[in-house]
Amino acid sequence: MSRDKHVLSVLVENKPGVLSRVTGLISRRGFNIESLSVGPTEDPTKSRVTAIVNADDVAYEQITKQLHKLVSVHKITDLTYDNAIERELVLFKVNAPAERRSEIIEIANVFRANIVDVGKSSLTVEATGDEGKLKGMEDLFRGYGLKEITRTGKIAMARNSKEV
Amino acid sequence: MSNAVKHSASTDSKAALTVAKAGAPRGLGSKNPKQGQKMTGAEAVIASLEAEGVDTMFGYPGGQVIKIYDALYNSKQIHHVLARHEQGAVHEADGYARATGRVGVALVTSGPGATNTVTGIATAYMDSVPLVVITGQVPRGVIGTDSFQESDIVGITMPVVKHSYLLQSVDDLATTFREAFHIAKTGRPGPVLIDIPSDIAGEEVVFNYPDDVNIPSYRPTYRGNAKQIRAACSRIRRSHRPVLYVGGGAIISGAGEEVAELSRMLQIPIVTTLMAKGAVPFDDPLNLGLVGMHGSKYANLTLNKSDLIIACGARFSDRVTGKLGSFAPDADVIHIDIDPAEIGKIREAQIPIVGDLKGVLDSMITAFAKSKVKPDTKAWLEQIDGWRKRYPFYDTAVVEEPNRIVPELALAKLADKLDPDTSIAVTEVGQHQMWAAQFLKCRKPRTFLSSGGLGTMGFGFPAAIGAKVGCPDKTVVCIAGDGSFQMNSQEMATAAINGIAVKVVIMDNRALGMVRQWQKLFYHQRYSFTELAPNPDFVKLAEAYDWEGERVSDPKELDAAYDRMLASDGPYLLDISIPRDQSVFPMVPPGKALSEVLGAIDRNDGATRQIPEEEAATVKVAPEPSDEELFDIEDDAEADEKEDAR
Ligand SMILES: Cc1ncc(C[n+]2csc(CCOP(=O)(O)OP(=O)(O)O)c2C)c(N)n1
Ligand SMILES: [Mg+2]
User: Fold this and answer.
1) How far apart (Å, rounded) are the C-alpha atoms in residues B445 and B277?
2) With an 8 Å Cβ cutoff, is B70 touching chain A?
3) Is B162 helix (H, G, I), strand (E, B) or coil?
4) Would you state the pLDDT for residue B5?
């Protein structure tokens, strides 16, 4: 079955401008990047870009072939079908009048999230997890009013110590 | 690949060997005489070019490259041609590269100098031409501050380069140049840009030019997969209506002879794209020539009705396929290309083969020679022969204006005057380009140069200059349109001052003919801004630049005019006045299927252009304006008459 979303893990040269080469190419070929994260790897000369791209299988193949042509790209792994480990970190700033604070703290506890800041009328919750968990929290917090959400973008890694 | 590959013997291992060496410097590399010397960054730029074996470059100086120009002043090896516009310089380097197979080099300053190169770089990128473009940049310390003549040229050109560098340190300079040349000419070639902050040009360095590159993330695949090649041979053997669909990759790979050989041995017809003209001799009996929007009806029928397309370094451009949904509906595809991204991009390939075309075809030839099997294409070739006889490109019976110069005949006559073995034709973009592609006769690769992918007006003339500089012994003729020529006509000074004896033939229709043709056929003859009249006096322009030139409008005088042009020693401009409203036929309208071709001549039907009824209505030729139309002073009687007519 073809998916309309793909998780790409791209190993690139850790050099200035490489990220814009990668993202520029994806958007230039007409695809939307839904989520993006970048950071150096175990080898400091290389970075890993994790991108979630809205593209079906055929389009995805074209994107990867084009990405491979970038001189700065070492390796591309499709983590879509790999049952990969996916994580994202999200900060929620939730409306929290004094009388409802404890409810919110309880929800955070259930999801093993942390309260990282307390304001007069809001709580800031830090949560890590996969898409399902974070979506669940978001839905619950919306009930209280969400002042702000910031997310890191997903990172992913193949399971079974499969090398990426 | 470079010309090192072109001349390689056609055994598999040898071909692979030369291919592997193709990335090495043409010059002395690490054995260059300046190796180990202390010098400035600017001197190291010139020393690097020398180590690469560069003997010719094109450019335009300015503040941020003044140090590099200063170093160039001392070079005995490098002949620098001063363009009159940076766009001209890059097209010149491009024409040089296309004609010689070497890497073209251009040097320009920062800011406007750099941005002026963009069209040239994009043109080279689309047609896979190896270039190294060196741009000056403001000093590292002020990058990003909008300093004088700063532009982010690495950012601006990112979508149209194969790779680019913003040089960070003088210590990286030599390696960067080595990598840039390697990347430009290996794999699928393309332009590489090196942006050099001017303070780096002033720093000192010990010059150490490497011979090898180490880019683990860049490893083009040259050798086709044996299993895939076997599968391809097997599919070819079982085909009944195969066709070799040959693109520019055949010229880059130097695989023309292999294409012709495979075609001859298996009796498979060949169609060529605009970029492949010259890959196979025009008079090869199995070469059907140009395919696509303005290709012959017989070539298009052959491609469209085939049951197997063997795509050789071709990319199924929309200018070839027409409406994709109805393109070659019965055909399987064997797609051979060095760029994996081309395979399956437009048309699914049943048998993809990633690799260097020359080597892959060579393996097939060897395999077929051993097995002695081949497809039975006799009936197919007979059918094609029938089409070929029935639908010629042109027939003198369709001459519309006998007292004017007919562009088709003008190009056919030029074709007869040029020796295909010693001449190079370069075109601008428009109708004249298509007539040139249809009528000129090419026998060798790199003798027909044209901007295919980007369709850049203004490319042809400077590219012709570059080709002539690269191949001084060849007759180089630029077939230009009056519109295109005016886009870079300032390069007449470059040709005149450097004694570059290019011949420019302007197919002068006082119009942006190709756009006008679309307006005529598809926009109800609403000729919105496609008229160029009155053109400048091109002959006087030639005189102003100290060129020879003449105008010809009488068909009887064309012959002698060509002779004078070809006999002259210097640059020469021949302004050929042709009727304004000629259309290029046949034509597959944009977005239509190849089978829906307009204006093909049908000998079974009195050799007339075949234009379907409804289109025919719109194809009436509008006469050039009479005085009455030009000077619109209506008297009352006329006005009344017009009223009556409505
Ligand atoms: C730089 C650029 N601008 C615009 C176009 C669009 N265009 C394609 S053909 C053409 C007309 C070319 O006129 P001319 O050079 O006189 O050639 P003709 O078609 O008349 O032979 C134009 C404007 C182009 N290809 N390139
Ligand atoms: Mg014109």
Assistant:
1) 7
2) no
3) coil
4) 37
Q: Are B247 and B275 in contact (CB under 8 A)?
A: yes
CA distance B73 to B67: 10
Matching residue, tokens 């055909």: B331
CA closest to A67 among chain B residues? B341
Exposed / middle / buried, residue B400 (Cβ in 10 Å: 0-12, 13-18, 19+): exposed
CB pairs under 8 A between A and B: 43
User: Quick one: average pLDDT of A39-49?
Assistant: 93
For chain A, which domains are there? 4-78 (3.30.70.260), 85-157 (3.30.70.1150)
Shortest-distance atom of ligand 1 to CA B514: 19
Whether B3 contacts B103, CB under 8 Å: no
**Which residue type does B7 have?**
H
How does strand B104-108 pair with strand B131-137?
parallel
Sign of CA dihedral B331, B334, B337, B342: positive
What residues does A47 pair with on adjacent strands? Answer: A12, A40
Whether residue B201 contacts residue B19, with contact meaning beta carbons closer than 8 Å, is answered with no
Q: What was the ipTM of the complex prediction?
A: 0.86
Type of residue numbered B74: N
Give the model's pLDDT for residue B619: 42
Answer yes or no: do B159 and A61 touch at CB < 8 A. Answer: no
Which residues of chain B make contact with A13, given a CB cutoff of 8 A?
Answer: 217
Contacts of A58 in chain B (CB under 8 A): 344
DSSP letters, B526-539, are: --TT-B-PSPP-HH
Q: Where are the alpha helices (DSSP H) in B349-430?
A: 357-371, 378-390, 407-417
Structure confidence at residue B402 as a pLDDT band (50, 70, 90): confident
B186-210 per-position pLDDT tens digit: 999 999 999 999 999 999 999 999 9
A10: three-class secondary structure by DSSP: strand
Distance between CA atoms of residues A97 and A121, nearest Å: 5
Domains recognised in chain B with CATH numbers: 3-206 (3.40.50.970), 226-390 (3.40.50.1220), 396-585+613-630 (3.40.50.970)
Comparing alpha-carbon positions, the chain B residue that sits nearest to A13 is B217
Best mutation site among B319, B484, B527 for ligand 1, i.e. most ligand atoms within 8 A of its Cβ?
B484
Does the pLDDT value for residue B503 go beyond 60?
Answer: yes
**Cα–Cα distance for residue pair B266/B414, rounded to 1 Å:** 34
